[in-house]
Amino acid sequence: MAYLQNIATLTRLLRDQVQQCNSVNGDFARDVTAEIWRNFDQLDRYRREQMDMTQGGMRTVAMRDLSPMAANAPSEYLALREIGAERGALTPPSPAVQGHQMTDMMRRMDACLTRLSARLIELERETGTANPNPKWVLEYTNAILRLLDEMSTTQGGNCSAR
């Protein structure tokens, strides 16, 4: 997907800049991280639309059985983005996402995207500080790139849960 390619390209750009300078330009790092999140959010939106189209009425029926709050809740990734700088532990997928109608591939992709969002949160926390530490920015960007590589080289986004 183009969004994953954009995330990889931007992550490499940030990693390479830090490696070349052995320091982090905070403004540049924050801008790049924001752009990475924008691509991640678009990817999540596209994924949710695909799930809705694939599952059709089955998802609607499953959501109707849940509390009104769960039915109106945004995806777990979007919810993480809304938390802001004080992000905590990842929230588990909503019951609507865990239904029987979800295919194994969708479950694997959700697991991969949850891991990716956790790495992006770490990167955003570090780049959001007054003086981002180059060591940590490199560690987080490398972790993101490894995960993206794993997602692209395995069938159907079957990344292992680490």
Structure description:
- The protein has 162 residues and is mainly alpha-helical.
- It has helices at residues 2-21, 26-55, 57-64, 68-72, 76-83, 104-127, 134-153.
- Helix 1 (2-21) runs antiparallel to helix 7, helix 2 runs antiparallel to helix 6 and helix 6 packs antiparallel against helix 7 (134-153).
- The two termini are 23 Å apart.
What descriptors fit this protein?
162 residues; mainly alpha; 7 helices; elongated
Classify the oligomer.
single chain
Question: Helicity, in percent?
Answer: over 70%
- Overall number of structural domains: 1
Question: Sheet with the most strands?
Answer: none
Report the average pLDDT across residues.
Answer: 76
Which segments are poorly predicted (pLDDT under 50) over 5 or more consecutive residues? Answer: 59-74
Strand content: under 5%
Q: Note the run of SSEs as H and E.
A: HHHHHHH
Coarse structural class: mainly alpha
Q: What is the number of beta strands?
A: 0
Which overall shape is indicated by the principal axes computed on the Cα atoms? elongated
Topology:
Layout: H1 2-21, H2 26-55, H3 57-64, H4 68-72, H5 76-83, H6 104-127, H7 134-153
Helix pairs in contact: 1-2, 1-7, 2-6, 6-7
Quick recap:
The chain is an all-alpha fold and 162 residues long.
